[in-house]
Amino acid sequence: MLLTHGPNQWNYLADDSIDMQFNCIAIGKASAVIAQNGELIIGFAAILFGDACPTSLAKYDDLKAAAYIGDVVVHSDYSGKGLAHSYSKVQLNSHQLKK
């Protein structure tokens, strides 16, 4: 789903970014948020926590308290319906649960 529906005129998914985010998920430094319609995966977002966040954010806040939305992909048949926007709400809830 990521590589089929992710890349488009507004979104470029770099292989190294995808690898880094899945590695962070595997070791507990990130969460994957999946949206489904029945069995079909229609959305994916990686939520990175703490030192997994981009270091450029450290000038704004302590990374230990930070959460960052990484790559977000929405199935092309479901684009424009607000799914990607809803991930910003999930980020806050996920970060609160992580504490």
From TrEMBL:
One of its GO terms (molecular function) is acyltransferase activity, transferring groups other than amino-acyl groups. InterPro entries: Acyl_CoA_acyltransferase, GNAT_dom. This is N-acetyltransferase domain-containing protein. Residues 30-85 form the N-acetyltransferase domain. It comes from the Bacteria. It holds the Pfam family Acetyltransf_1.
